[in-house]
Structures are given as C-alpha cells and as structure tokens.
Amino acid sequence: MLHEVLPLESGEELVNPTLHYAVYGRLNAARDNAVLVCHALSGSAQVAEWWPQLFLPGGLLDLERDCVIGINIFGSCYGSTGPQSIDPATGEVYGPTFPLINIRDMVRVEAKLIESLGIARLKLAIGASIGGMQVLEWAILFPERVARAISIGVAPLGAMGLGLNHLQRQAIMLDPAWKGGYYGDGPQPEGGLALARALGIISYKSVPLFEQRFNRKPNRHGEENPWISTSAGQNGRFDVAGYLDHQGEKFNPRFDANSYIAITRTMDTFDPVRGHESPFVAYSRITAHLTLVGISTDWLFPPEDIRSMAAIIRAAGARCDYREMASVHGHDAFLAEPEQLVRLLTPVFE
Amino acid sequence: MLHEVLPLESGEELVNPTLHYAVYGRLNAARDNAVLVCHALSGSAQVAEWWPQLFLPGGLLDLERDCVIGINIFGSCYGSTGPQSIDPATGEVYGPTFPLINIRDMVRVEAKLIESLGIARLKLAIGASIGGMQVLEWAILFPERVARAISIGVAPLGAMGLGLNHLQRQAIMLDPAWKGGYYGDGPQPEGGLALARALGIISYKSVPLFEQRFNRKPNRHGEENPWISTSAGQNGRFDVAGYLDHQGEKFNPRFDANSYIAITRTMDTFDPVRGHESPFVAYSRITAHLTLVGISTDWLFPPEDIRSMAAIIRAAGARCDYREMASVHGHDAFLAEPEQLVRLLTPVFE
C-alpha cells in the first residue's frame, strides 16, 4: 500500500492505493536483471498463470537468470485498488465511482514500486494489449529506467476499438442487475458481463479463424438444430454461438463488472503523444531499445497502425523496430501462438 | 392475404399470412417489364423510400419503362405477417413464437404473389444483403421465372456473421423490458434493440471508414470530455460512441424487437446449396443472367466469399459474373455509394 495521495491525469486522486505485485526468481546483486511483465484487460500480477509460455525452456525468460515482476493494474479485481476497494473518502466501496485511470497514472505508480525495490533500470519491460500500452509509456516517461521494451499488439485505439469498448460497457449497463454499478455484494450483472466478454472475444479473434473453427456447423455440444424453432421462438445455436455463450459464462466467476468498465475506459485513454508538444518531442525521449510487434489479422489494433507508429518513433530518432506475427488468430495471437512470438523476439535479445 | 396454409422449411406453418407489397410504374401489356426489388433487414416494400437512387435519371430503373415491385418479408413490421400479427391458431399476437422463416419460404411466397399478378417471368430480381439472399434463391428455385438476377453483398453468413447476429439477439433479450418477447403493447426493449442496432451498424461499416469519420475525436455534439470522469463513474464519449448511441436511439421508433430477432434468424438460414444433392446440382438450375456484387471492405459478407461462390456457380455451368465495389464503406456501400453501384451494373444491362 502506498501511503500517499496519488494525483491522476483526470484531475482526481487515489488515496493510499494498494498495488498487488508478484515476483518470480531473484534480483541479482546489481539489481539489473529485473523484467517487468505488464498484463492486459483481464490479467493479473501472476504472470506465470496467464503467460506461462514466456518461462518455458528456450522461452524469453529464464528464472535462473531473470527476476520477473508482475503488477496488477488499478481498476482490476486481482488485488490492486479497484472498484471493489473501499474509497477512503467515503468508507464505502468505490463501485462505479472509481476514478478514471490513465495508462500514465499506472506507469507512474509502477515506476515508484520498481524504485522502491531498489531497481534503477529494468532489463526489460514487456507486455501485450493493455500491457503493451504500459510498456510504451514506460519508455517515454522513464527513458533512463528501462533498457529494452517490447510492446505487442497495440497502438492508440482507433474509432472501431473505441466503439467496441463503448458497446461492451453498454451491454453491462443494460443488465437490470447492474443497478447503476451498485450491485455490491449482490449478484453482479452476469448477462451483461457475459455479453461484453463475448463481444470483446470477437474483437480479439479474426474472421478467418472463426471460419476455420466454426464455419456454419451447429453447436458441437448437445443436439441443437438451427434449422427449426424451439420453444419460445428460439432456434438451436450454431457452433460459434455456443462458443461465445461459453466464453461469457466462464468469464463471470473470475471478473468484476465495474472492473471491466474501469479498465476499458483506461484502455481508451492510451495516447502516448497527447500533452507533449509534438509526436517527435514525445518519442525522441525514448532511449530504450524498443520493439513493436503487430499481428497480421488483428482488427482491434491493426498492424498497419503499429507499423506507422514505429515509423514515427524512428523518425523521432529513437531505436525502434517493427516485427509482425503472421497469424490467423487476430489480436489474441500473442497468447495463441507463443512459439512464433518467441521465435520473432529471440533475435531482439541477441 | 393468402387464404391458405403455408408450409415452412422448419416444419411449422403460417396460416392465412398477409403479404404487403408496393408497385411503382405500370406492368406493360406483355407483363415482361416487372422488376422485383428485395429488401434487407430493416427495409420495407416501399423501395423508393429506402433505395431511391435506383430510380434516378441514369439509374438502373426507369418508371417510364419498368414496373417495380417491392414485397415486405415475413417477420418484418412493415405490413407483412410478423411477430406483431395475430396467430390464427391462438388469437394472440405471435410475439416470440413467430415461426422460423427460411429465405426459401419467403421466395416461394413471393413467387406466388408474382404469379398472381400475371407475371410469368421477372425482367430482373435485384437485392442487397437479405435482399440478395432472396434474389439468389429466386434464381435457383424458379429459374424459368427470372431473366436477370443481381445479388449484392451476400453469401451464406460465415461464423463471424452468425456470431454477430447471435450477440445482437442476446442484447435484445438482456433488456428487462424484453419480458421473454411478451412486451406486447407496452414499451419495447429499447436499450437492447438500440445496442443490437449499434452492433449491427458496426458490422455494416468498416475500420477505415470509422477511422476517417471519427478517429479519436470527442463527441461532436455537446461538450463531452473523454479524459475526465463525470458523475457516477462515466466519462465523456468519443465521437464514435455518440454516433453509435444515436444510431440505436433513432432505430427504436421505427422497428420492432421481435422482428429484429425473427429476421436475423432468417438471415442465418441462408444456404443456397443445403438440401440439394450437391452445390453443382443446385447452381446448375440457374438459367438467369446472374451478377454477384462484392464490396471490398465488407467484413460481414467478405468479398472473397462472394467471389468464390460466383466461381462455383460458373463451374456448375450457369452464367454468373462477379463485380466488386471498391469502397471504404463496408457492407453498407450499396446504399452509401449508389453512383458507383450504378456504374458497376450498367454494363450488365447493355
């Protein structure tokens, strides 16, 4: 817990916030072997649970060599201060009044934590999606404190991504169990959160992947027939519908609706050049070796946006290379094809 | 009204259904100048209201020459039998028990209507989206009764489209005002229908179009600031969010939630080869001059799916050419860029 008032870019503040973090491996004597792994929307500080492939033999990280740190972002429900926390100002749970967290707010507090561990300079900061947003702001805000940075599958959200986030929040708030965000200890808006998650999943996948996996097959579980009516005007589900419903259902027990709203709003804020005199002034601050990774079929963060951003960063004089995963998996490729990601990034370390 | 029992592919039936249709211009003495214009999801028989550009000077149709007929599809709320109609079997409004209508059911009853008007052979059947689905089934089911067919922006829905339709229905049914579909004369599930429409709109547009129009600008109406919190944890909307909310709001007064569910289910059923011995047997029935039009940025009905379908149809021995609209507008290009569509199709008539 930080015993202080943390000012936020929105003008609000967090009083005595808690940061939950995890450490794998050991800091060496020089404290120069620290790797910060930043997590995405529904991730946690427990990096080994949601991105275990980084740690495999021949992977990017080696716990005999590296000290890996994961930090849970504000707004989440995995230990750090979020909507389920008590607001010291009121003594009540924040719920929907949890303040708007900017990616920069998160990175600034992460930097405090890293500093408190006696780490002057991270060996590496790596992350994908919202994790990649944090990595890029690390490289801009704290250039001397990160040697190497890898940001995967991310650029400022375009209008399509902003629209999709908006509709995911609308789905949650449509659910009568939402109660304006004050569902408290009661049942959370499960239907709305499931629908939001399903829509998010659609944005993390791709048209060709869905075609390969599901095509026009009926639901593989049970005996559903989409060609006839069932009771109350429903008809049997196609396979993709069964998949989407299942993804929504299994998300509910592990995530909080207010957190989903808070974190998608944070995702919307990411804009590394905002507030700087110019993109060149912002990006010329970067001294880390920066690698940006795009994914060929990612339609949430199109690879051409990431490639363009890399070009601007290089034009600003920073060292930045762009690499692309050729994958049918869309945005999720960084989790779905870890071997390809490792192959792509291994030269970065050599 | 048809005084008969109409058997449906689902095994259900429609008793004494009503077909609402509109006629523009006049049938000539030979009754060979009839053009059937099939409408899409939220369209009506009133072709001149939703696709007026077809009728402009230099357009595809000329009311001095052609007799244009529009027919409202079952399940809709613009005059033909749909969920708001009385079920003769119960004396109650169908509501959510409206039977599953297959595109072929629709085309068979359209053929009856056309026949009842003394028209032995349509000069042209043209339609886009669900309208294009009807056109293709016309060409297969009634080859001798249509001379020329133009099907725009459509192929059997792939898994992504099936998934999107499923989530649109889930949105409607999540709304507490849905009441299982029995909202009757009471307020309809407006929040759910607005959300469904907004998600549909996203599928009819494209990432580059959204980028051009909205980018990361804040809402152009009012003074919304996405960078700060407002009351109850909301923040100001980005421009794209204002647009999507507006599209949803203006849809409610003109459409019915049960109809939206019924028609998206119909859209899911489209599969011109299903039930035939093979695709070749199905498509070799076609004797009309058939033109399929794809749209370059359409991600709901990807142009490569339509091009492939055209190739199979030609391989089956039918006359089928494929043309592509180069447009940033996505699926909606057939409405958004009518001049280009006319230019593309004019050679078809020459």
TrEMBL record, chains A, B:
Residues 33-313 form the AB hydrolase-1 domain. InterPro entries: AB_hydrolase_1, AB_hydrolase_fold, HAT_MetX-like. Substrate binds at R197, D332. GO terms for cellular component: cytoplasm. The active site is at S129 (nucleophile), D298, H331. The keyword Cytoplasm applies. Transmembrane segments: none annotated. GO terms for molecular function: homoserine O-acetyltransferase activity. One of its GO terms (biological process) is methionine biosynthetic process. Belongs to the AB hydrolase superfamily. MetX family. NCBIfam families: homoserO_Ac_trn, PRK00175.1. This is Homoserine O-acetyltransferase. The gene is metXA.
